[in-house]
Predict the structure.
Amino acid sequence: MRKYKKTLIFVGILVAIVLLYGLTYIPHTIVNIKPDKVSSIKIFDGNTGYETEITDKIAIEYIINNLNDVTFQKDKWAFLYMGYSFRTTIYNDKGKPVKKLIINSPDTIRYKGFFYKAKGNQIDYEYIKRAIEKQS
């Protein structure tokens, strides 16, 4: 009877772990920041090597609202993948980084070791690209 209890507990823990990990694949927003709480956005363009800091309030509001509106679903592991388009760091009104992510395309980001795919709305990749080109 004691061995049966241990096996049951082990199976229960295993099922809970698998279930919790599976829940991370439910689509959700990655960025949930109020634009007026952002002082700047630093973007390093991995294609050209240019880095720019966006401080214009209108541009910040547009980019943050766009990122807030995109729902992402976890995809595959991002480890061992090289190269990227836009390494993005969002800074709060105290100058502290509050979100770091890599924007690879209009529908793909890298965040905390995983690729995420956009579901529905997409990132305005061209707007970000133009903002970098304008400042470089």
About this structure: The mean pLDDT is 91.
